[in-house]
Amino acid sequence: MKLKIFALLFGIILLFLNSSMAIILNNPPETVPITPQDTHVVEEKLVKFTWNFYDIDNDTQNAYWIIIADNGALKNPIINTIKTTPKEEVYFNIGKDNTYYWMVQTYDGKDWGKWSSIQTFALYTSQIIQPIAENKCEDGTLYNECNNDFKYC
């Protein structure tokens, strides 16, 4: 009888210990966007996106998920891609001049981290030839001889 009570009490104690002990097996990674820098102007259509991956468990980045959109709510993104790679950079040909918003999330092989903060940048690739002196464009033509107010490259 005493053995049964002891076994019952021991089982209850083990059950209590197992339910009250929280064991953290993995800490999700943290992702900090680097480039394009927030609120900066980018002058090339092929835009380089970089971020830093931090993991206090010293896990490595196994994948990333990046979203790029032309609206702050990131609705209907122009890019929404997940790649399995340890690289902390990617290049995208964005397209037309506009203001864009992006965020990135990383995976350490066990958990996805939280989304990074949303960054914004302006893509401005149109180069305008401005008058240099005496109403002349860089190519030597008189500025007032141009068909438009501006002459584009």
Write the layout of secondary structure elements.
Layout (H helix, E strand, L loop, with lengths): L1 H19 L9 E6 L4 E3 L3 E9 L8 E7 L9 E5 L5 E5 L4 E10 L11 E5 L4 E2 L21 E2 L1
Parallel strand pairs: 2-8
Antiparallel strand pairs: 1-3, 3-6, 4-5, 4-7, 7-8, 9-10
Q: What features would you describe in this structure?
A:
The protein is mainly β and 153 residues long. Helix content is 12%, strand content 35%. The strands form 3 sheets. A 5-stranded mixed β-sheet has the order 2-8-7-4-5, with no helix packed on it. It has a 3-stranded antiparallel β-sheet with strand order 1-3-6, with no helix packed on it. The longest helix has 19 residues. The protein is elongated.
Q: Give the overall average pLDDT.
A: 79
End-to-end Cα distance, whole Å, is 96 Å
Give the CA-based shape. Answer: elongated
The percent range for helix content is 10-25%
**β content, as a range?**
35-45%
Instruction: Detail the poorly predicted runs.
Output: 6-11, 128-133, 146-153
Query: What structural class should be given to the helix and strand makeup?
Result: mainly beta
Largest sheet: 5 strands, mixed
Biggest sheet: strands side by side, in what order?
Answer: 2-8-7-4-5
Number of strands: 10
Order of helical and strand elements: HEEEEEEEEEE
TL;DR?
By secondary structure, the protein is mainly β.
